[in-house]
Amino acid sequence: MVDVMADRGKAFWVITVAAVLLTAVGVRLGVWQLDRAHQKEAWVAAIANQASRPALDNQGVAQVASQGSSSVVAEYVHRPVRLTGRWLPAHTVFLDNRQMNGRVGFYVVTPLQLVDVTGSETPLVVVVQRGWVPRDFLDRARVPEIVTPGGPIEIVGRLAPPPTQLYSLGEAQPTRIRQNLDWPAYEKELGEPIGSYSVVQTGVMSEGLLREWPQVDAKIYTHYGYAAQWFALAALIFVLYIWFQWIAPHRVKN
Question: Is the whole model's pTM more than 0.85, yes or no?
């Protein structure tokens, strides 16, 4: 009889410890998901704040470039720009397997040589993600026809990181069609410094290029949903423990 009571006591304490640990884990994971949601809310607010600031001109972008990569990423990404320059079409690159509105095609990337008010070239080159074009699925090596004005032009857009990298088994010899853009290698191809950022050109469709860029989706409410699930699981474990280890045995005894 004593052994039976001892075994029952051991089981009670094992279940108690397990319930406490599982409840604590559930609460901790719920708090972590809430923290992730708050971080992303702050990130989205920072993007909106940057987008509302005055657009940078050529001189402003030159000042950004002189401050180094850390300042660019921390303070200027998503800042609007209005730049005047001349396209360098010989270095246009078509980034493959890029989607816009659910369709697969190319992101067109062309360097822009900035010019001053007199039309003279400045030392600064900015890499511009100009827009999206569909690809020819019958001839995958065919480059779409796009219009690239030859004289000085003005573009509007926003500062952004370099184009995102897609999974690749390894890049072949660089051609006009590429899976990814190797930023240091591309800088060597141009023979000019291009900084650690690009410009995403915005506006209506023109020059054969669509510019309905994906909007930032932080999936904030997903984190709130996960947090609710973890808190609910922790509450369920606590309720089951109280019922089966305290209430039910007490009722049976009575």
Answer: no
